[in-house]
Design a protein that fits this description.
Layout lengths: L14 H7 L5 H4 L3 H22 L3 E2 L1 H4 L8 E2 L4 H80 L11
Length: 170
């Protein structure tokens, strides 16, 4: 059984979200396969354990079975075939553990990136709130200035000399 480790998200803060939007592997989705890997490895390990238990019973000396002299001794230990099966199961288990570790590392990195994105979002929201408040203050100041200009224009209009009808100012 050979499983590919999940690719961790990109290193930049916006990279994780961009990776998801770009269709790259999502470590959260990749972790869904962990249960299947663990179940498969557990089933294979159980099968190997059953075979080991069955073959661990003492065997008669193979020489006696082949027509040689039976010394009455029994051979202890595992056959080469059983040792190979155990070694293969061990390798599969190690591979599965490496996949799980890689996925967990990817999830940890992804979680850290999400935390950083959340912090950045809060900072940006605060900046936006400040900008909106500054805009409101500026709008109020502009209104005050417009009112002041209107008042000055009215005052200047009152002070203007009137025309006497013949183009002369009185």
């Amino acid at each position: 059984m050979e499983a590919n480790a999940a690719s961790p998200p990109e290193a930049s803060g916006a990279g994780a979200v961009a990776a998801i939007l770009a269709g790259k592997p999502d470590p959260v989705e990749a972790s869904a396969g962990i249960d299947a890997i663990i179940a498969t490895v557990a089933a294979e390990a159980s099968a190997v354990v059953a075979e080991v238990a069955a073959s661990s019973r003492k065997k008669k000396n193979p020489k006696a079975e082949a027509g040689g002299q039976d010394t009455g001794e029994e051979e202890e230990g595992l056959s080469e075939e059983m040792k190979a099966k155990i070694e293969a199961a061990k390798q599969k288990t190690l591979n599965a553990l490496n996949v799980v570790r890689g996925t967990l590392d990817g999830l940890s990195n992804y979680q850290q990136q999400l935390h950083q994105l959340g912090d950045e979002q809060l900072r940006l929201e605060e900046q936006m709130k400040e900008a909106i408040e500054n805009s409101r203050r500026m709008r109020a100041r502009i209104r005050e200035e417009q009112e002041r200009v209107i008042a000055l224009q009215e005052q200047a209009h009152v002070m203007e000399p009137e025309d006497d009808g013949e183009g002369r100012r009185v």
